[in-house]
Every structure is written in structure tokens, then in C-alpha cells.
Design goal:
single chain, mainly alpha, 2 domains, four-stranded mixed β-sheet, 15 helices, 4 strands, elongated
Length: 375
């Protein structure tokens, strides 16, 4: 019996259990609907808080003071940002890291001198590598000031007369739409519950692969000429595809029936679904072969999967800092969300490599352990 035959009969056997499949698919969908409705308000932005912005004025002249004074005294700007003086760039960086300020602006020591000599001048803006809308607000305010300043210099150069501007018009109120760029509650939980369901598919790897190496059937198989690696690969493929098919049904149902936002194309989403299925199956198979006990391995996977989901914010949006990157759920979330909402492609690539590399490592450990068990 070759790998394809083993995989085929494994899938056929799993999908034949209709009751179990319906529960595995539609219970998570019901959870998505309930969480999406219950937590809808926490995902909607009703207003923006005033943004804390640090500033460091190193200017040896008076122009820097004029800039800071304008930012502090313009009423329309004060509705958006609040300036906090810092003593050094190092202090400002520490405040950004601790989220005490969102960003900070720096005026260098030659700011006035450059302005008077008509040299190229600039106000530097620093922020976190992972900035959000707050940086855009600060940049727009400073761009508005720069445009006014450049226009003033140009007019004075031609007319030799000073120009007055109404600074209350520096910032104008415009409606901002974030439709499609920020997940609604149902969009968020569609991803996290899908990942939870796929990782729970580790039970397939545990049960289907384990029975060939631990149960009575495993002893019979080892007495036949069936290649143990072929047997393992066939069962892994069958278990993975069974898990993947269930996940695919969830994606298609939520996309076309619940109108969940899965991005501009379903192809990468389907690819990530398959990759997460591979990882989950490999994890379940490894635990089973290492423990030599299907029940103990199943209990461990049932314990780890909810923990992985919790650390990654799958139940409630909580940031556990760098520890969340130890969770395979976080790897999958990063791949899904950054693809759906046009995020950092490097993070997507890194997450895919983590899932794929993790699958290879887990599978290699399983094959080595299985060969030792069969000797």
C-alpha cells in the first residue's frame, strides 16, 4: 500500500463520521457569530484621544521657540495633540517604548540659522517601528506647518513684505473612513477561532498516526512489509487534509454567508489554512509517538492549544509582549491579519517560515522516534 492509498483511506474514514464533522465545523462558526455580536462595540472607534507627543528644541535661535509656541497655542492643534517636553533623545525613546508618548519631534541646534540662510531645513519626527494612526496625525500637522512656512518664505522673497496666516486653518476637520482597514469583531474572531479549530486538529495527528504505532493495529502493521515512513507520511497527509477541508469549509461559509472580510483574495488564506493544518497534525503526531500513549498525548494537546490561543489574544485582545511569539497561534494570526489588511509582508513571510519550519522539525522528531519504536 503506497502513501496515496493510505492518505485516501484516512480521509475517507474521517469524513465518513458526519456527526463529528458537523460539530467540528459549525460549533466554531456559532462561536464566531456570538463573539462577533457580543464584542462588536469594543472593535469600533467612536473617537480619538488626544495624542501625547514629545518635543526636543535644541535650536540656538528663536525660530524653534516660535514653532513650539505655535503648536502649543493653536486651538485646533491642541484638540489633536498635547506636547510634552523631553530633555534628550534617549529619554524620548524610552517614553515611546513605554507608550507614554506616541512620537517626538526634534529641532536641531542650527534650525534658526538654516531658516535665515534659506538652507534646506527639516523638523525631525521619531516614532516606534510599529506606529499607528497617531504618527500620521503628527506628520500631517507638521507638514501643514512646513507648507505655511515655505509659502511665507517664497512670498517674502518676491514681495519683501511679511505674510500673515490664520493658524486656525492649519488643521481642518474631515471625516475619516477605516472601512476594510480595521477588523470588525466578527472579522477578528473568524481568524482566531479558525486558527483555534485548526490547531485543535492536532487530535487527528494524535489518533490516526498513533494507532499505527501504539495500538494493536500498529503491531500488525509493523509485521508487514509496509514501509514505516510511507505509513507515517500517508497518515499525516490524510489527517492534515481532513483538518484542512474542515477549515476550508469554515473560511468559505464565513466569507460568503457571514460576509467576513478575508481580504482581496482567498488564495493566500487557503494556503495559510493548509499550513496551520500541517503544523497541528505534526504536533499531535509527535506528542503521541513520544509519549507512547494516545490519551496522554491528547490531553497535552487539549491543554496547550487553548494556552496558545490565549497568549496570542485569540479569546480577548491582550498583549503579552514578546512571549506571544512563542505561540504558533500568533504565527498564524500574524500571517492572516497582515495579509487581509495589507500589513508588513516581511512579518507574513517570517510567520510562514515559522509554521513551515516548525512542521518540518516536529515531523523529523516523529519519524526518528517512530523508527526507534519499530526496531
Amino acid at each position: 500500500m503506497n502513501i496515496i492509498d493510505i492518505a485516501y483511506y484516512t480521509i475517507k474514514r474521517v469524513l465518513k463520521d458526519r456527526k463529528s464533522n458537523i460539530v467540528k465545523i459549525f460549533v466554531p462558526i456559532i462561536a464566531i457569530i456570538i463573539l462577533g455580536a457580543a464584542l462588536k462595540g469594543s472593535f469600533e472607534v467612536s473617537s480619538m484621544d488626544i495624542i501625547e507627543v514629545g518635543y526636543l528644541n535644541l535650536d540656538e535661535g528663536s525660530t524653534g521657540d516660535t514653532v513650539i509656541e505655535m503648536l502649543k497655542e493653536t486651538e485646533s492643534i491642541n484638540k489633536l495633540i498635547h506636547l510634552v517636553e523631553v530633555s534628550s533623545i534617549e529619554e524620548a525613546e524610552e517614553m515611546v517604548i513605554n507608550d507614554k508618548i506616541s512620537s517626538f519631534i526634534v529641532l536641531d541646534k542650527y534650525f534658526t540659522k538654516k531658516a535665515q540662510s534659506e538652507e534646506k531645513n527639516a523638523i525631525k519626527i521619531y516614532s516606534s517601528e510599529y506606529s499607528d494612526y497617531r504618527l500620521t496625525v503628527v506628520q500631517n500637522i507638521m507638514d501643514s506647518y512646513a507648507n505655511i512656512y515655505n509659502t511665507s518664505v517664497a512670498v517674502i522673497g518676491v514681495t519683501k513684505n511679511p505674510v500673515e496666516f490664520d493658524t486656525t486653518e492649519v488643521v481642518k476637520t474631515n471625516s475619516i473612513s477605516i472601512d476594510g482597514k480595521k477588523p470588525k469583531a466578527i472579522d477578528y474572531y473568524a481568524v482566531t477561532i479558525l486558527v483555534l479549530t485548526l490547531l485543535s486538529g492536532a487530535a487527528y495527528g494524535c489518533e490516526l498516526v498513533g494507532e499505527d504505532y501504539i495500538d494493536v493495529m500498529g503491531k500488525r502493521i509493523r509485521s508487514t512489509p509496509v514501509n514505516p515512513i510511507h505509513q507515517y507520511a500517508g497518515k499525516m497527509i490524510g489527517a492534515c487534509l481532513s483538518n484542512f477541508i474542515q477549515g476550508l469549509v469554515m473560511v468559505l461559509f464565513t466569507n460568503y454567508i457571514l460576509d467576513v472580510n478575508w481580504g482581496s483574495s482567498l488564495l493566500p488564506i487557503i494556503g495559510f489554512t493548509f499550513l496551520a493544518s500541517m503544523f497541528a497534525t505534526a504536533m499531535g503526531a509527535m506528542f503521541c509517538i513520544l509519549f507512547g500513549d494516545i490519551n496522554r498525548a491528547g490531553a497535552l494537546t487539549n491543554l496547550l492549544v487553548p494556552i496558545f490561543t490565549f497568549i496570542a489574544g485569540g479569546y480577548i485582545k491582550i498583549d503579552f509582549g514578546n512571549i506571544k511569539y512563542l505561540s504558533p497561534s500568533q504565527w498564524a494570526h500574524t500571517a492572516f491579519f497582515n495579509t487581509i489588511y495589507d500589513g508588513d509582508k516581511n512579518l507574513v513571510l517570517m510567520s510562514v517560515l515559522m509554521l513551515f519550519g516548525g512542521t518540518l522539525i516536529l515531523s523529523t522528531i516523529s519519524i526518528i522516534a517512530a523508527r526507534r519504536r519499530s526496531i
